[in-house]
Specification:
With 114 residues, the chain is mainly α. Helix content is 85%, strand content 0%. It has one domain (2-113). The protein has 6 helices and no strands.
């Protein structure tokens, strides 16, 4: 699990750095660009739709892992809007909490025990 933890930290750092540069150069206008590319029906839009589908699955998984509790739904929304920036941090925290138990990591402690 050490390699997985290192990967999560490296990915988080890359995304954080890249995002900081993009925000510094272009501001926070992500949504018009993101949905504008989708409306244009080109490859950038196809990628954005595919990526948004992955964000949806990520958000649903996080909420499901927390039994769709209020906290789970909030975390799911954060997963959807936060993307890999959120998910890498979330997985690192959960990995440390579960001491590398992949079953608990994926299913949650309650489901993994049952």
């Amino acid at each position: 699990m050490t390699a997985f933890r290192v990967l999560l930290i490296v990915l988080w750092g890359c995304i954080a750095g890249y995002t900081a540069i993009v925000v510094a150069n272009h501001g926070f206008g992500l949504f018009p660009v993101f949905f504008g590319d989708m409306a244009a029906m080109g490859w950038s839009g196809q990628f954005n739709l595919d990526f948004m589908s992955m964000l949806t699955l990520s958000g649903l998984w996080v909420a499901w892992r927390h039994h769709f509790s209020a906290a789970g739904v909030v975390l799911g929304v954060l997963a959807f809007f936060g993307g890999a920036f959120f998910l890498t941090a979330y997985l690192l925290v959960v990995d440390l909490q579960t001491k590398g138990d992949v079953k608990q990591l994926l299913l949650g402690t309650e489901r993994a025990a049952g």
